[in-house]
Amino acid sequence: MLLRIRHTTPPRVAGPPRQLRHLLEITGADTVLHIHNNIQARPPRIEYMFDDLPEDLPRLETLRVWHTLWLTRINAKIAAVHQRQAETEHGRRHRPEPPDWTVELGIGAGRPPIAVHTHSLHIDRTGGRALVACNSVAEIPVIDLSTDRVIARVPVEIDGMRAVAFTNDNEYALVTVERNSTVAVVDLRDYRVTRYIPVGPGPRGITIDDDDTFYISAFARPTTMLGDHEMEPHSVTVVHLDGVDLSTDDGDAQFEEVRVGYGPCSVSIFDTEKVSYDAQKLNEAAEELASTTVA
C-alpha cells in the first residue's frame, strides 16, 4: 500500500539479486515496482524526473487551472514590481534640487514670515546676506538675499547652532553653538571661523549692543559640554569685546554673568526711553526671581 500511495516518482529497481526478487514476488511488490534485470536495461532517468503528477485527467486538469491562476497572479505581481521600480528610478532621476532654505509664513494680513526650517536666521547690517544657525549640521549657510541662493557654507567644529548676531562694523558674525557652549566667530570677508569664545552652558539667544558687548542666554541643557570653562547655568553671559582681535584666537574677552530664571532661550536689548515700563515692578520681579532660583 505504501508503495502505491507514498511515492513522488515511479518506484523502480534495477538489477535486484535473486533473493530480493523472490521477496518482491512473495509480497506482491513486483506488481508495483518497475523491475529491470540490470542497470543497463532501465530507461533513462530523465523520463521519470519530476513526474510526480497524478495519472488521471480530472486531477491533471484541476492542477492546470490552479497553476494558471497562480501564474496570472505572479505575472501581475512582476508587472507591478517593474512599474514601481521604474517610477522610483524616474523620481530619482528627475527629483528637483532641495531648497537651500524655506520660510514658514504666519497668519493674518500679509502673512509675515515667522520661522525657517533651521533654528534661527539673521540678516546682516547691509541687508544683503543672511546667516542661518543650523541645529542639525555642522555648517553655517550664507544666503545672498538678492538671489535667494546659498553662496557659502561655513564649517564649524560641531552642530547645534542656535542664533546669529553681527558686530557693528559688519565684519564678523557671532553664532551660538549650544553643544559645546561657545560662540563661533565668523569672518564675513572670507567665510571662515576665526575663533570660539567660551560662554555659559547651552547658549541659545544672542544680541549685541552699540559698544560690541554681546549677551547670550545660557539655557543649560543636561547634555551640554562645558569644556574647560566653568560658568553658571540659567544665566545671561555678558561678553566684552573691547580690544579683542576677533580675527585670531589670541587674547581673552572679559565676562560677566547675570543669573536669571530656568532655561532662558533668547535675549533682547531695548531702549528704555522708547519702551514704556514700570521700573519698580521690573526690579521687584527680578529680585523675586533671583531669590527663588536654585543653583
Count of β-strands:
16
Taken in chain order, the helices and strands follow as: HEHEHEEEEEEEEEEEEEEH
Averaged pLDDT:
79
Major β-sheet profile: 4 strands, antiparallel
Give the C-alpha Rg. Answer: 41 Å
CATH T-level topology of the largest domain: Methylamine Dehydrogenase, Chain H
CATH class type of the largest domain:
Mainly Beta
Strand content: 25-35%
Strand order of the largest sheet: 5-6-7-8
**SS field, number of helical segments:** 4
Estimate nothing, just give the exact number of structural domains.
2
- So what's the overall shape? elongated
The multimeric state of the shown protein is: single chain
Structure description:
- With 295 residues, the chain is an alpha+beta fold.
- It folds into two domains: 1-52, no CATH class; 103-292, YVTN repeat-like/Quinoprotein amine dehydrogenase (Methylamine Dehydrogenase, Chain H).
- It is built from four helices and 16 strands.
- It has a four-stranded antiparallel beta sheet with strand order 5-6-7-8, with no helix packed on it.
- β10 and β11 (182-187) form a beta hairpin.
- It is elongated.
- The model is unreliable at 114-118 and 223-227 (pLDDT under 50).
